[in-house]
Design goal:
Chain B is mainly alpha-helical and about 290 residues long. Chain B is built from eleven helices and no strands. The radius of gyration of chain B is 26 Å and the shape is flat. The chains are: A mainly alpha (about 350), B mainly alpha (about 290), C alpha/beta (about 280).
């Protein structure tokens, strides 16, 4: 650093030698500031502010454009779009209800399965794993998040699918078949496959954030519980988890947000069928998957606009979830630097998986 | 010494509590092992099925047209991915770094918070939605192009680059800035010629992470740069270009096992690239953070 | 430097009047503590007696806290920590086979330097240990007793459900004491209990210790000699040995009645420390 600084100062002072008449009254420092330096500071401010403004307004732009694009469909169907199950390209009748339900069913079940797994993994990494294992295992878990979703979708169709069709669903059908959720023909594609694939995607996200959260809990808190004669688990359940509850909720919100937005992997394994039904073995569809599934083009403007309408609904849901997660994180943000770094890692974890 | 009237061994209730403790520990271990097992299964599945189909033809020939499964390389798809990601980086990198400079060095705390929140929210927008956005803005009027795809990818990369750059900028020791300013160097020069070079390692690794992320994106590209056109050599960003991810998706839709094996092969290439890039970038970032922090 | 042998062990017939015929609660024989290969404390021989306040004083780095944490096996939490020699608690080898550290910590409680209340209500803080142990009968009464014994009851009795984090530093520390004695330990260890507190809270804690002495054996680590002089019955002075090869570790230099340590110490190192010449 130091050589660079020296070079810099020398360059600056050389640049101004002989450019201005020496003025005995001016303080030495001012002599080294030429025109470039005078406009440099405000210029930097303007340039970077513009960049930041642009980055921020993209959010508003996206919202605006989507609402505009959906206008045609909104005029045709209004809010009834949200309660209609039809998606009929031939008769130009479209409705989002089936997709909204599908989105929530898959994402909620995925997060329900993923959260205990993720918290358990985070606990293992912070409380139980020996030091050298910790970073290796942590890296492996994060690698899971880095796998592109189209690859997970491919694996879902060709590897997980057959397993579900030939082993898992028969097993569930025979043991839990008395419940309406586990009835019906066995298929490699459908809700169950989609839920499992989504779970695989969001476990690493929730686990990374939760793990960072646990490392910010001071050791005195843990020691206080252990010194009272609590076992490790009792310390976790009675002290660690209660102390990190808002952060865990934020992590869950992030994972949920990821799940509802997932298009490719879900598209490839869910079977793309309209209709709400109880069985997890059946086919379904979600907002993101249906939008993606129409990539080959729509026949009418109304259909295109309906797609944009779907995208708007998805955007609104995702904004609500994300802003909710931000609000949950906010109280944590006010604490010292370690928490900020935890948040940044949370952010990273979210941004890790490609759709 | 008389016989002690008590014991420090685990008895009765404590024994039960210790059993619960051990059971919970076992569950936690099982969860971690499950995650690793799933990772291994996926990676090994892709590697086994993909590596076998790799041959020179696969790389060098263009995508097969129609239902002729013979031959069919993905060279043009790889070129397409490069172009898409390359242009996206050219857009997102300067924009992201400048945004980060503003937020971390020049903004008031309130504006900085708004900026960060906006970036975090943008980061959480489903990529399919971003694809539809660029579709309505660009493609509806001007048709598909790789440039449109790059635009969508750059929107995805922007928050990642901006936030990671911001983090790195905050890690640069204040002493460096103070020394520079104390020597009479103006603020903008301090930022541009002292702080940025110092943070460059972190900025580059953050960008690499963003690249690894968008190289695996499919959804935003679906509407923006079409499939199946990689039959001729093309790197013109104003034409629609294919990408490795689109090829995997397209081939996965086909029933024929030959297409499927090509999908696996393409998946293998993509997976290797993404995992390798992510891993090295994260290692570099971790080491870089440690260097600046400790 | 030659180790000057001083009267560290108190023999039966030479028992100090303050000890009387009290039972030996802790007996350390040649106890050394290591972190990996690094020796932290060397060959301590020390007996701590029942229902006395024993203070451990010495310069920083001499291993006072390490020794304290060895007494309730909190040092186990450091993966590289190990001991050699013997440490007996009321006759039982603390580090013997089959000994459960959780049971040890229930009997030998600890109050830390910085108050560390849990992020829950005052009531739940005190009740935490009792709930774990299944002491569910008359929980309210037990919580009240613990808070009274910690001289905190009157100040919090109307806001038991409020967050413990809303209390002042001194109150939080007394809460931690209440929480520790709620599980009915036999010993309470204090690791610099008042160093993070203001003088008034410190004095309150010290008064509390005099009260607690009636029911519990107390061992206190403190860097504040005046505090040791005010509070302790017996005082152990740990010194720092620096070997020619650069390794440093703590040793027990002198252990005696507090009055003697401070007015007429036998070892010049003790005298140097208590008169403020070094340490």
């Amino acid at each position: 650093m130091a050589p660079r600084l020296v070079w810099l100062v020398v360059t600056v002072s050389h640049a101004h030698e002989g450019r201005r008449a020496p003025d005995e009254d001016r303080p030495v420092l001012e002599k080294t500031r030429g025109w470039l330096d005078r406009i440099g500071d405000p210029a930097l401010k303007v340039i970077t502010f513009s960049a930041a403004a642009l980055s921020v307004t993209i959010l508003g732009l996206i919202t605006y454009e989507l609402i505009t694009g959906a206008r045609l469909a909104f005029h045709s169907f209004g809010l009834g779009f949200l309660t209609s199950q039809t998606w009929d390209a031939i008769h130009n009748q479209f409705g989002a209800l089936s997709l909204i339900v599908g989105t929530f069913v898959t994402s909620v079940l995925a997060i329900v399965i993923a959260t205990p797994l993720a918290v358990a993994i985070a606990l293992f990494l912070t409380e139980l794993a020996p030091k050298h294992v910790r970073s290796l295992l942590g890296a492996l878990v994060e690698m899971l998040a880095a796998i592109p979703s189209v690859i997970l979708g491919l694996w879902g169709i060709l590897v997980l699918g057959p397993f579900i069709q030939n082993q898992l669903e028969p097993f569930l059908g025979s043991t839990l078949g008395f419940l309406p959720f586990f009835r019906g023909p066995h298929s490699g594609t459908g809700l169950l496959t989609a839920i499992l694939v989504l779970t695989i995607m969001i476990v690493p996200i929730v686990a990374s954030v939760t793990r960072e959260l646990f490392t910010t809990v001071p050791s005195e808190l843990r020691e206080g519980a252990l010194a009272l004669g609590a076992t490790r688990w009792e310390m976790v359940r009675g002290v660690l988890l209660p102390a990190t509850r808002p952060g865990i909720l934020a992590a869950v919100a992030l994972g949920f947000g990821r799940a509802i937005g997932e298009a490719m992997a879900v598209l490839m394994v869910i079977g793309g069928t309209i209709g709400i039904h109880l069985s997890l073995f059946g086919h379904s569809d979600t907002l993101a998957a249906r939008i993606a599934g129409q990539y080959q083009g729509s026949s009418t403007n109304l259909q295109t606009s309906s797609l944009v309408y779907l995208a708007t609904i998805l955007l609104v849901i995702s904004l609500v979830v994300n802003i909710g997660a931000q609000l949950l994180i906010k109280p944590i943000d006010r604490r010292p630097r370690r928490r900020r770094i935890a948040l940044d890692r949370a952010f990273e974890a979210q941004g890790l998986s490609a759709d | 010494m008389s016989e002690p009237a008590f014991t420090l061994k685990a008895t009765g209730r404590l024994r039960r509590r210790q059993l619960v403790n051990q059971a919970m520990g076992a569950l936690a271990l099982a969860a971690a092992l499950l995650a690793v097992a799933v990772l291994a299964i996926v990676v090994i599945s892709v590697a086994r099925r993909g590596a076998g189909s790799l041959n020179l033809d696969f790389f060098t020939q263009s995508q097969a047209q129609g239902f002729n499964p013979k031959g069919g390389g993905v060279l043009f798809a790889i070129v397409g991915t490069f172009v898409l990601v390359g242009i996206a980086s050219l857009i997102a990198l300067p924009l992201g770094v400048l945004t980060a400079i503003y937020i971390s060095e020049l903004a008031t705390p309130r504006l900085a918070r708004i900026g960060r929140m906006a970036l975090d929210i943008t980061n959480g927008i489903p990529t399919i939605v971003i694809g539809i956005f660029v579709f309505t803005v660009l493609v509806a009027a001007h048709g598909q192009s790789a440039f449109a795809g790059s635009l969508a990818l750059s929107i995805i990369m922007l928050p990642i680059i901006a936030r990671s750059t911001e983090e790195v900028l905050l890690l640069v020791p204040p002493a460096q800035r103070e020394a520079s300013l104390a020597l009479g160097v103006s603020r903008w020069r301090t930022t541009v010629q002292v702080v940025i070079p110092s943070a460059m390692g972190g900025i580059l690794t953050g960008t690499t992470l963003a690249i690894a992320r968008v190289a695996g994106e499919t959804a935003p590209l679906l509407f923006l740069t079409s499939l199946g056109v990689a039959s001729h050599a093309d790197a013109n960003p104003f034409h629609p270009l294919s990408s490795l991810t689109l090829v995997i998706f397209e081939y996965s839709e086909q029933a024929s096992p030959d297409y499927q094996s090509k999908a696996w092969a393409a998946a293998f290439i993509l997976m290797c690239f993404v995992l390798f890039t992510s891993l090295t970038a994260k290692l570099a970032l971790a080491r870089y953070r440690k260097k600046l922090e400790g | 430097m030659e180790t000057i042998k001083t009267k560290i062990e108190v023999k039966e017939r030479d028992r100090l009047p303050v000890i009387g015929d009290r039972e030996a609660v802790f007996e350390a024989r040649d106890l050394s503590v290591f972190y990996g290969d690094q020796r932290a404390i060397d060959s301590v021989n020390l007996t701590i007696y029942q229902r006395l306040i024993t203070a451990i004083i010495g310069p920083s780095g001499c291993g006072k806290s390490t020794f304290l944490r060895t007494l309730n096996r909190m040092n186990d939490l450091v993966p590289s920590a190990s001991i050699s020699g013997e440490l007996r608690y009321r006759g039982i080898d603390l580090y013997g086979p089959g000994v459960d550290a959780v049971e040890v910590r229930r009997r030998i409680g600890m109050v830390f330097q910085k108050p560390n209340p849990f992020h829950s209500s005052i009531y739940d803080n005190v009740a935490f240990g009792m709930r774990i142990l299944g002491m569910k009968k008359d929980l309210d009464g037990r919580v009240e007793n613990a808070l009274r014994a910690a001289a905190l009851w009157d100040e919090v009795k109307d806001r038991l459900k409020d967050s413990a984090l809303g209390l002042s530093g001194g109150q939080q520390q007394r809460l931690c004491i209440a929480r520790a004695i709620a599980v009915e330990p036999e010993v309470v260890l204090f690791d610099e209990p008042a160093s993070a507190l203001d003088p008034i809270s410190t004095s309150a804690i010290e008064d509390l210790m005099h009260e607690l002495k009636r029911d519990y054996t107390l061992v206190i680590v403190t860097h504040n000699m005046q505090q040791a002089a005010r509070v302790a019955d017996m005082t152990a002075f740990f010194g720092l040995e620096v070997k020619p090869d650069g390794s440093r570790y703590g040793v027990l230099v002198e252990y005696d009645e507090t009055a003697k340590i401070f007015t007429n110490p036998s070892d010049p190192r003790t005298e140097g420390y208590v008169t403020g010449r070094f340490g």
